[in-house]
């Protein structure tokens, strides 16, 4: 009861104590801030550390995303170049007026002095030996061996390959033989007085029945007369990009059209093929 009475008396005289409260609060407020400072500093430090960890994690994630996007851009660039090559092949197939089948390169045989490529189209697609093979720039070679799921292509630069050609400028006929080098053909059967000069375009003559007439083969790059020999030394550079092709065109003549759908060989056909082998 005495405490209640004391509180009531103090409350009635509260206005007189306001000045005292204001004076004391002036000294107490800094103490309150000083007491709260450790917890505030700890909280700010914790937030700073958490923010740094989050920023570091975001930075790592962004670096990974950048690497992924760069890899995708490289892939898209490769696809774009492949699309350009395929468009070039398609445009040239229309210009040639022949039926063609696009084949992709699988491997290259590395035997010395043999220039053989393996592509992913075979007898299931109607491919057969001696078919001409081209790229967007000229003659690549011909089908050397046709298997059910793949085919071997002998390049025109193989030492065992020869192709009848003619000089586009004047129609001079001759034969171009592989030299064993990817950037060189040899014309061994022309005399020193032959009407041929560096820069002449060599095209297929159509003789022999393997290569239709008019396909670019090579460009003459050197003509050397040999007085003591019957024939001149003539070399030419193939028009086709033999060391850069990923896609090739296998050509059909108009008399033997390309099959529209690849079908597996029937039992009778398989038996006949085995008997021939």
Secondary structure blueprint with pairings:
Elements: H1 2-12, H2 14-96, E1 99-109, E2 116-119, E3 132-134, E4 139-146, E5 151-155, E6 162-167, E7 173-178, E8 185-186, E9 201-204, E10 216-224, E11 233-238, E12 247-252, H3 267-276
Antiparallel strand pairs: 1-2, 1-12, 2-5, 3-4, 3-12, 4-5, 6-7, 6-9, 7-8, 8-11, 9-10, 10-11
**Which term fits the overall shape?**
rod-shaped
Strand order of the largest sheet: 1-2-5-4-3-12
Q: Helix proportion of residues, in percent?
A: 25-40%
SSE pattern: HHEEEEEEEEEEEEH
The largest pleated sheet is described as: 6 strands, antiparallel, barrel
Return the CATH topology of one domain: Thrombin, subunit H
- Label the CATH architecture of one domain: Beta Barrel
Number of helices: 3
User: What Rg do the Cα atoms give?
Assistant: 42 Å
The CATH homologous superfamily name of one domain equals: Rod shape-determining protein MreC, domain 2
Termini separation comes to 126 Å
Low-confidence stretches: none
| Count of DSSP strands | 12
Q: SS-based structural class?
A: alpha+beta
Strand content: 25-35%
- The average pLDDT score comes to 79
Supply the CATH class of one domain: Mainly Beta
